[in-house]
TrEMBL record:
Keyword hit for Transcription regulation: yes
Species of the source: Nocardia jiangsuensis
Coiled coil (residue ranges): none
Highest taxon above the source species: Bacteria
Gene3D superfamilies named in the record: Periplasmic binding protein-like II (3.40.190.10), Winged helix-like DNA-binding domain superfamily/Winged helix DNA-binding domain (1.10.10.10)
UniProt keyword annotations, A-Z: Activator, DNA-binding, Transcription, Transcription regulation
Pfam name, any one: LysR_substrate
Name this polypeptide is given: LysR family transcriptional regulator
């Protein structure tokens, strides 16, 4: 019988690429991860890793085993969810991941509703960039989270996660005037930290308009971005949720660019009572926002 814990390490190696990254994510030492993967090779009787110096790559047999592992983990998650439905009151910890601009309009009313309807549920919120969410969900540091993608920055499906549409927003050009995007080919730009989806959007949307943006400032909080725009420090892309309280003098020009937000959770956990309650509360918060 194969050890699920060892299979999970192999799955994480497939996603993260290095043994060091797996060790850091799951609180192992690199040597412990290597030992567990070597033991898994003995158990399977198949070569799973190709080692070249300090680098390792997965063999075709390992990639097939990873695909089966995703299916197995989803079955185990569904079994756990089914057992949890037998309880009459929701208890335990529910860990929710959210990006900053969703906190006031979506997360806050959702957790107020969850706390009121399920007082036995211990809610823990983590603010993080959506690019970090898949790793956090697979590593079981989160139970449900908001993920997003922009036009020009599509996100590949993760076989270990399930997603469902939640919100669709318009992206605006924030500037001191109402000029079109192409008029800012020589302007200074304000973008997110490199590696974030917002940074990638700035690069790709400008390139699609025929120029490479000259990024002067990096800021991940849209309030800070708008303050910099108001101060004449550059222009930026800002989605609907980030435009609240825009300072005087900032002109928001709607663009044919959309940001799409999805709910994400591990495969098989959508029916868990706590995750299902969070899905309901987050959807209700979005629906209420649309009615205001």
């Amino acid at each position: 019988m194969l050890d699920v814990r060892k299979l999970r390490l192999l799955r994480e190696l497939a996603h993260r690429g290095t043994i060091a990254a797996v060790a850091e994510a799951l609180n192992y030492t690199p040597s412990a991860v290597s030992q567990q993967l070597t033991a898994l090779e003995r158990e399977t009787g198949a070569a799973l890793l190709e080692r070249t110096g300090r680098r390792v790559t997965l063999t075709p047999a390992a990639r097939g085993l990873v695909a089966r592992t995703e299916e197995l983990l989803a079955v185990l998650q569904r079994a756990t969810a089914e057992l949890a439905t037998a309880t009459t009151e929701l208890t335990g910890t529910l860990r929710i991941g959210v990006f900053p601009s969703a906190v006031p309009a979506i997360l806050t009313p959702a957790i107020v509703a969850l706390s009121s309807e399920h007082p036995g549920l211990d809610l823990m919120v983590t603010e993080l960039d959506p690019a970090s969410v898949p790793d956090a969900l697979r590593g079981e540091r989160l139970d449900i989270a908001l993920v997003q993608e922009y036009d020009y920055v599509p996100v590949l499906a993760d076989p270990g996660l399930e997603t469902e549409p939640l919100l669709r927003e318009t992206v605006h050009l924030a500037a001191r005037g109402a000029e079109p995007l192409v008029a800012h080919r020589d302007s200074a730009w304000i973008a997110g930290t490199p590696g974030t989806l917002c940074h990638a959007l700035t690069l790709r949307a400008c390139e699609a308009a025929g120029f490479t943006p000259r990024i002067r400032h990096h800021a991940d909080d849209f309030g800070a971005v708008l303050a910099l725009v108001a101060a004449g420090q550059g222009v930026a892309f800002v989605p609907d949720l980030g435009t609240a309280g825009a300072p005087e003098g900032v002109v928001l020009t709607p663009l044919p660019i959309r940001r799409r937000t999805h709910l994400a959770y591990r495969r098989g956990t959508g029916g868990h009572p706590a995750v299902a309650a969070a899905r309901t509360a987050l959807r209700a918060a979005v629906d209420h926002r649309g009615e205001v």
